[in-house]
Model the fold of this input.
Amino acid sequence: MEDSIKRWTAKRKTALVIEIIQGKTTVSEASRSFDLSPSEIESWVDDAKKGMENSLRANPLDIHAQYEKQLRELQEAYGEAMLELRARKKLQALLGQPDE
Done:
């Protein structure tokens, strides 16, 4: 791949992700070569894997359904974290410990 890419189109991202998956390059090598953050490239790889997994399902989800599912999971995690935080605060109050 050429080193002076100005705009990362889906096609270019796909080509890089395929090279990474095939073991032709690594995330750190690509990061240095193209002056991108490793987390950005890892995000592309994760998105590609999710897309492949979805396309191989018997009943693939559309993009909207994928985002709805992800949003629902994040909301559930947030709710659980808030409940845990409230429980800890109540326990601290019962034990007479000051808030942190």
